[in-house]
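Data deposition worksheet. Section B asks for the primary sequence of the deposited chain exactly as it was used as input, without tags or linkers unless they were present during the calculation. Section C holds the resulting structure in token form. Section D is free text for depositor observations; keep each observation to a single sentence. Incomplete worksheets are returned to the depositor.
Section A, Depositor: J.P.
Section B:
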Amino acid sequence: MSRQRVRSMVLAVSGLLIPVTFYYLSPYLVLQAASEGIASGSLVLFGAQLLFALGFGRAFCGWVCPAGAIAEGTSRLRDRPFRWRLLDGVKYVVWLPWLGVIVFLSVKAGGLRRVELGYQTWHGISVSGVYSLVVLAGVLALVVGLTLWAGRRGFCHTLCWMAPFMILGRALRDRLRLPGPRLRARSLACVACDACSRACPMGLDVQGMVQQDRMSNSECVLCARCVDVCPRHVLSLSWRRSGRQEGHG
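Section C:
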């Protein structure tokens, strides 16, 4: 099977499993658990995402994230690129105070005394009642609404509380020059057909990145759609260390 078919299948399964995994991604339950001195499954997952990004950047967003699955599915209803670049910073305005509250509640509770992966879940299943179903519906409406209003993966760009963990991990990876999957471009072979930019689920100006010979972007989710649609095979995804530039002529 093609790489994009595999990616679509994984995202579809992830989206269908949202009733099971929802609380493991919850920004609220991590606060409630921290106030009780508990490291919830969501807190463990957020930490795991940061560590994962040290090796794989934001591949979780492009290949596994259920919110990403819903956003890409919604884009089929109204497919337009995300152009509100100033809104990329909104997620940090949300993330930093939220992270501070987690730390504050943990300290107030006397520290995190135990780990409870299935915190507030019924046999590991998140959506097990009317309340959790209503909350899930609200979050899904937010993801769908932002995608329809702002463009492809509008939620990922603006309000996702998980993205900063992976962006931070990715930045640490590059600072430490650790190896990982990275885009690479033969910029002189580019014919400026713009197929890569049109295919990007994050609405990035991939063609501009190729022409500038700089393929590193914190919003790139390593889905490789740009690689797979390029008619001249200008782009590639390879495992290597970072350099001053991510492309070459």
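Section D:
Residues 179-240 form a domain with the Alpha-Beta Plaits fold (CATH 3.30.70.20).
The two ends are 31 Å apart (CA to CA).
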